[in-house]
Amino acid sequence: xxxxxxxxxxxxxxxxxxxxxxxxxxxxxxxxxxxxxxxxxxxxxxxxxxxxxxxxxxxxxxxxxxxxxxxxxxxxxx
Length: 78
Hints:
mainly alpha, single chain, about 80 residues, elongated
């Protein structure tokens, strides 16, 4: 169980970081020039996207779920 949680944390963290980066790029891209970027909005939207990504990951991550069931290693962690 503990090892599965570590895998979940790693996978969810990677997804959240990617989501934050994608949101930041998209938000920055809406400005005509770099001087017009509303940095408070970029950070706020990116942080919210990261949080939502983590909350969505609670429902399950294919990277963690499939590797555990395919390998059959779930019996040792109980």
